[in-house]
Amino acid sequence: MSTSGLRLVWVYPDLLSTYGDQGNVLVVERRAHQRGLRVERLDVRSDQPLPTSGDIYLIGGGEDRPQRLAAERLLRDGGLTRAVQNGAIVFSVCAGYQIIGHEFINDLGHRQQGLGLLDVVSERGPGQRCVGDVLADIDPQLGLPQLTGFENHQGITRIGPQARPFAQVRLGNGNGTGDGTEGAWMGTVFGTYMHGPVLARNPQIADLLLKLTLDVNALPPVDDRWYEALRAERIAAATAPA
Amino acid sequence: MADSTQPLSPRAKFAVTAGKAAAAVSRAAGRGSGSVIGGKVALKLDPELLSRLAGHLDVVLVSATNGKTTTTRLIAEALRAGGPVVSNALGANMPAGITSALSGGAEARYGVIEVDEKYLTTVANDVHPKIVALLNLSRDQLDRAAETRMLAERWREGLQDSKAIVVANADDPLVVWAASSSANVVWVAAGQEWKDDAWSCPACGGVMHRPDDTNWACGECGFGRPAPTWVLSNGQVIDPHGSAWPIRLQLPGRANQANATTATAVAATFGVHPQVALQRMESVTAVAGRYDVVSYQGRDIRLLLAKNPAGWLETFSLIDPPPAPVLLSVNARSADGTDTSWLWDVDYTRLAGHPIAVIGDRRLDLAVRLEVAGVDFRVFDTLDQAIPQLPPGRIEAIANYTAFQDLRRVVGN
């Protein structure tokens, strides 16, 4: 982290901010402020160069055409790849998750090259969209409580040998591969299908991103009363018999 | 002008009667107005009923993400200057509800019909509208609706062969993209506060440039704001001759001035003078409960409906300033969309300084949202618990769709 504070980059809100993705940015910003960190938030549109010196890059979901355009522009820009080489943290959701993998199927039905920052390959599922609440156990290596989120996608994402599943679903679809995996991670790069937005429903993930940035094992506690109440309610709702 | 006064066929008459009977049964069973079930029964018996019912009418279709019920009402009021109007005034805006509403319109001259965004093309093919009024398009219920740009694309395809005059908002790039396939468009500068669904050019995908508050153009292909012939400016409608007509609505807010401007432009195509049209609109005080001020537990409560980020934004700009107490209620039932992520697209810092009470099925989602926004709030299980805890003053109650219906039920509206 630079001396000027935490540099939080929101990647392409003009294309990848379809359903509350700003929430992930707001939660990280808020929780950093609560720990006394200064935050420099950079919202970078797709006609602007992506800074390579950011600490945390957040990438949201998007509709099919914006997803294609975002991947083209990110690949041409090259900034995100350099940032990851510099040790930056990337947290991506849905379309953003597919874009940072090796390839995905675009709105024209063609295979499109992604950034290859995460060892995953995505395709489009043949059936109905996966829509609804999800409950999953996060990879124990990350030491996080259960994942709660909302999924709304038609993707199938297969994880290659260099990445690990971010979570194993108890309820819901996740990666859509039938093996119960949800999302993927590899070093400091994370991807998930969870909306919600996911960091509002899982503030411990936001804290993990901050801990990785600061290279610390713990952060001062903050008042998580409302987050905890929401989590308890959503987990109960997901597990309640229909 | 009405084309024909041909009476309905026996089959169509039977379908109308059967539909009304089904609606009566539904009402008796306490399942709402019955207009949808009635329409469904009637359409099953005569699939071409909608087009038959509309045959003698001059039809106006109104579609948008926000403001369609209110604008439909304003247009209906204005056109009553020229003759009887039939309208789906309660907002049942899919083919069955529209069929049911029109079945009461044998004597009408005008049909003013609100249409769900997804059904615009289908309904237009059936009713051959004289006018199609398009107000705005923005993200709404993405867990079950089509993508916003896809809706614009469908409108665009549906309108290209239509003979209707399209009255469209020049300030919404998605609406402009949809309407510009039509040969006959009347552009209305009605404004659009929400801009976050149109940063990407609907034509080519380039990034939209907004040099000031009014103008927009794609940096790549040049697709941009058309020159409007009707303009909303400082609470006045400027007509195509440059004359200004003051808007004196009882309905609050900039968004309703925009709705009135579009309604004035629509009425003018039928020969209703702007002054007459606007005067008639002044009589509208509430639309399906929206904007109604009710008295409950000794308090005045103004009921405001906001279903999506663009709607919340417009609502924040019309409420009384702090310290007016605010009550927020959000549900996520199927009619609302079951994903609450959209709350994070709403800028709740705009409520700073208001005492805020939070209720509704999804009050905890809203609580986290407000906590992160850094505004003070209190959470209650019910309206009755919340009201006595709010400081004096008229309560501005803002709710999404089913939460709004719940509020109306509790306060007896």
From TrEMBL, chain A:
GO molecular function: carbon-nitrogen ligase activity on lipid II; glutaminase activity; transferase activity
A UniProt-annotated Pfam family: GATase_3
Keywords, in A-Z order: Cell shape, Cell wall biogenesis/degradation, Glutamine amidotransferase, Hydrolase, Ligase, Peptidoglycan synthesis, Transferase
Domain spans labelled CobB/CobQ-like glutamine amidotransferase: 8-202
Reactions catalysed according to its record: beta-D-GlcNAc-(1->4)-Mur2Ac(oyl-L-Ala-gamma-D-Glu-L-Lys-D-Ala-D-Ala)-di-trans,octa-cis-undecaprenyl diphosphate + L-glutamine + ATP + H2O = beta-D-GlcNAc-(1->4)-Mur2Ac(oyl-L-Ala-D-isoglutaminyl-L-Lys-D-Ala-D-Ala)-di-trans,octa-cis-undecaprenyl diphosphate + L-glutamate + ADP + phosphate + H(+); L-glutamine + H2O = L-glutamate + NH4(+)
Protein residues bound to substrate: 129
InterPro entries xrefs: Class_I_gatase-like, CobQ_GATase1, GATase_3, Lipid_II_synth_GatD
Active site positions: 94, 195
Family to which this protein belongs: Belongs to the CobB/CobQ family. GatD subfamily.
Complexes and interactors: Forms a heterodimer with MurT.
Function: The lipid II isoglutaminyl synthase complex catalyzes the formation of alpha-D-isoglutamine in the cell wall lipid II stem peptide. The GatD subunit catalyzes the hydrolysis of glutamine to glutamate and ammonia. The resulting ammonia molecule is channeled to the active site of MurT.
Protein's name according to its UniProt entry: Lipid II isoglutaminyl synthase (glutamine-hydrolyzing) subunit GatD
UniProtKB/TrEMBL annotation, chain B:
Catalytic-site annotation from UniProt: 339
Reactions the enzyme catalyzes: beta-D-GlcNAc-(1->4)-Mur2Ac(oyl-L-Ala-gamma-D-O-P-Glu-L-Lys-D-Ala-D-Ala)-di-trans,octa-cis-undecaprenyl diphosphate + NH4(+) = beta-D-GlcNAc-(1->4)-Mur2Ac(oyl-L-Ala-D-isoglutaminyl-L-Lys-D-Ala-D-Ala)-di-trans,octa-cis-undecaprenyl diphosphate + phosphate + H(+); beta-D-GlcNAc-(1->4)-Mur2Ac(oyl-L-Ala-gamma-D-Glu-L-Lys-D-Ala-D-Ala)-di-trans,octa-cis-undecaprenyl diphosphate + L-glutamine + ATP + H2O = beta-D-GlcNAc-(1->4)-Mur2Ac(oyl-L-Ala-D-isoglutaminyl-L-Lys-D-Ala-D-Ala)-di-trans,octa-cis-undecaprenyl diphosphate + L-glutamate + ADP + phosphate + H(+); beta-D-GlcNAc-(1->4)-Mur2Ac(oyl-L-Ala-gamma-D-Glu-L-Lys-D-Ala-D-Ala)-di-trans,octa-cis-undecaprenyl diphosphate + ATP = beta-D-GlcNAc-(1->4)-Mur2Ac(oyl-L-Ala-gamma-D-O-P-Glu-L-Lys-D-Ala-D-Ala)-di-trans,octa-cis-undecaprenyl diphosphate + ADP
Entry binding sites for Zn(2+): 201, 204, 218, 221
Domain Mur ligase central: from-to ranges: 65-267
This enzyme's EC code(s): 6.3.5.13
Family matches, as Pfam families: Mur_ligase_M, MurT_C
Highest taxon of source: Bacteria
Any one of the GO BP annotations: cell wall organization
Enzyme class: ligase
Start and end residues of each Lipid II isoglutaminyl synthase (glutamine-hydrolyzing) subunit MurT C-terminal domain: 305-403
GO molecular function: acid-amino acid ligase activity; ATP binding; carbon-nitrogen ligase activity on lipid II; zinc ion binding
Pathway: Cell wall biogenesis; peptidoglycan biosynthesis
UniProt KW keywords: ATP-binding, Cell shape, Cell wall biogenesis/degradation, Ligase, Metal-binding, Nucleotide-binding, Peptidoglycan synthesis, Zinc
Assembly notes: Forms a heterodimer with GatD.
Family assignment from sequence similarity: Belongs to the MurCDEF family. MurT subfamily.
Free-text function comment from the UniProt entry: The lipid II isoglutaminyl synthase complex catalyzes the formation of alpha-D-isoglutamine in the cell wall lipid II stem peptide. The MurT subunit catalyzes the ATP-dependent amidation of D-glutamate residue of lipid II, converting it to an isoglutamine residue.
Protein name in the entry: Lipid II isoglutaminyl synthase (glutamine-hydrolyzing) subunit MurT
